[in-house]
Specification:
Residues 522-638 form the HD domain. By secondary structure, the protein is of the alpha+beta class. The protein has 5 domains: 3-231, Beta Polymerase, domain 2 (2-Layer Sandwich); 242-386, Four Helix Bundle (Hemerythrin (Met), subunit A), CATH 1.20.120; 401-482, Hydrophobic Seed Protein (Orthogonal Bundle); 502-656, Hypothetical protein af1432, CATH 1.10.3210; 747-958, no CATH class.
Length: 964
Amino acid sequence: MSENAVSAERATTRPRTLAGAGSASFTTEDPLVSLDGILDVEAVRQEFDALCATARSADCSDIRLQLLERLKSVVSQGRAAIREMLFEDNLGALCARRLAALQDELIRIIYDVAVKHVFKIAPMDPDNRIAILAVGGYGRGTLAPGSDIDLLFLLPARTSSVGEQVAQYLLYFLWDLGFKVGHASRSVEDCIALARDDFTIRTSILERWLVAGSAELASELDERFARDVVQGTSREFIAAKLAERDTRHAKSGNTRYLVEPNVKEGKGGLRDLNTLFWIAKYHYRVDTSEALVKAGVFSRREQTVFAKAEDFLWAVRCHMHFETGKAEERLSFDLQPLIAERLGYNIHPGLQAVERFMKHYFLIAKDVGDLTRIFCAALEEEEAKDAPGLRGFVRSLRNRAKSIAGTLDFHIDNNRINAVSRDVFKIDPVNIIRIFRLAAMHDLEYHPDALKLIRRSLRLINGDLRANSQANALFLDVLTDRNNPELHLRRMNEAGVLGRFVPEFGKIVAMMQFNMYHHYTVDEHLLRSIAELSKIERGELANELPLATEIVGTLRDRRLLYVALFLHDIAKGRPEDHSVAGARLARRLCPRFGLDERATELVSWLVEDHLVMSMTAQQRDLADRKTIVDFAEKVRTLERLKLLAVVTVCDIRAVGPGVWNGWKGQLLRTLYLETEPTLSGGFTQTSREERLTAARRRLEDRLQDWSEAERGSYLDLHYPNYFLTVPIDEQVADAEFIRRSGTKDPLATEVRTDAFRQVTRIKVLAPDHPRLVSQLAGACAGSDANIADSQIFTLTDGRALDIMTISRSFEAEDDEMRRAGRICDNIRKLLSGETVMSRLIADRRAVRHADLFDVKPKITVDNGLSNRVTVIEVEGLDRTGLLADITGAISDLNLDIRSAHVSTYGEKIIDAFYVTDLLGMKVTSDTRIARIEKRLLNVLESAEGEVSSVKTVPVQKSFGYQSI
């Protein structure tokens, strides 16, 4: 067959075969992708032949610009047509195949020009043969609008100068058209040698498709690759691909339930489906999901799930690329509403359209995980059966079915729990819950056949089973398992059992909340909070969480904590407050789970007030006695305080990476220890004075290289709240910093980076004054610094110590230190009057989609939260420089900020400022209060639609006034 004949073959279609030409999408069995309505291939070919015929130069160089402009038009019109088709049918996999087919024809057109008109290659010249193969994702027959174009130029064993010239000619055209092209020019021998040593290259060549050129050369690669690379190497390939997958998952937090998921690389995304495709093609020598059904790996239903998952993920990815005009793989908050609209999602009571879309996304990601687990388990079973010789015999003895004490319905099969027959659930539906209890008791994983049988028996979970006391007792045992309750609850959830047995939980499965604070879906958050409690109970976090660990060991009924955490967010997504609705659900569910009236009341209280302790610790002045008294009145008993403290810790730690930190832990510990004597009638193991004395002594002991006079003088610089709220290691670091700074320079700064936590800490020592908080926040805003944590402490000599933790922006240490240096320079300029804040921040305003987040501004001026000062509460949408604007406005209102507690929950800020007038009195005038509210509302509304690069979580300013 001639070169030109091969390039013209299948001009508008893309066949799928096992070897030779390669394979396309793994999901559907339709072998053809039509370009009807997208591109008239034959007409374009004739047009280009006619253009080349008019060329004056032999190599058509004089018409190259004409060819390029026409190709740009072909690409633009073709992609626009495919985009419109996607908008009409939302068939993502078909869109990806259409884009790949269009790319095929584009390459063939350029190739034909090169072969026929530029280089005039003789069809039968073996030394000038070249095969242009699509590899990688393109070789699978799918492309996203922003995908790279991966090409392999296959040349004869002897270097072909003409072949290399053709490849170069094609590449320059593709680059000029704006494509990102990954390419390599190799002989067949090169491909085989490299594929043996490099799994990435091996995978790339595995997914190959002859776009144009020599079919004979491509067939030679097919035969050699199958014989010399693939044969006998399935086990090592599978191990490499699964290890690669695990590494990729670890980078993304090892969860598929991130609220801004990576559609391509994230867990449950397209790359996981690709991994199944690679392994199936390599191990089973198949190209279609139908072939996997025939091989007994997937059922028909699972084949359908695979097809739907792939199509949905491709639809999302293609819409993202078309919307952004680039290869955007992260489904970010600003894209989610747009994609939800494109895919036709509507508002539902309690859920926005975008939240319904994202719930569907996470359910699809869960399906991908289920398919991966089934597929990998089938491979493992096959490996166990096929193990040769003595090793296989020993393995078969070790893994053969073993009985489980107390049951005849289940046994241990290959170190996993499995059902003895297909009727165990039908005969006794309680077994659907019992299998999870047995697995927890004996620390077993689940056999894939058992999970399949469970999924096919979900209809047996009905009202009778939910009301069955034995089933509920077994469920409570799983929930409160002392070893690993999260694992077994997660398996229940993935199998669909948890949502059917507890329908209230089923409503929040895969539910995301459209905000920037929560990192996971609601069900994932609940399971992670239970995992945190289990780790505390096992003593794994004793060094990090000593108080919570101590409390758990003293509780009368540990079950209350597990049930409360399981239910604390179960009413999310309803029109009413989720805490109130959750408490009502708890009063109904707890008796069903077997809890008595007293336990039910405690759990329902914990669910209703599970946010009280964290809000009090982060948004109230813990040095104000009124704060402690008010909190104690809400808690009422020491038992409730203990339970609430542990629930709060687990809840915060399960929100997402970086949300919990030592500062929050110290605040909660302080609140607990301050409240404990109030609830216990004044008795506590250590009084406040004793704790203060012990804290001062600890710091004194750590400063042994200081003189006695230096130590005494330094300890007198701090007010009591500093010693009680700052961890000892940080106190020592602060002491060294203040010592080095001396007293001559009124301003000192210090920078330390933490690459592991991806943060940078900036310490500032400066004279205290009313606008200090505003200026420090403005300095960060002026450098686009994202404040993750900040604490400000006044010293007895009139200075203030501020420790700001900002999110890291640069991987390189030198770059990050230079950025921190610019922030410190901004601080110096602002404090010295060399610049003004408005000038510093003006160029840093970033545009936000105005309708992305709906946070209504709210200002509350409250004189009941403190006996001595007025508390101003501010809620609103975060933006660049907002903290600076708010604190500046408070100063303009002639108010003195005595204590500032600023928290950011994603896009929402909740601030509390403890203020007095300039005479140190409360603000009681109604007229003045109205003026405060009006001015601060204007601040919140003045920059609507702008985005903040400063997220302050939390800022604590502690002042040493002794009257509180």
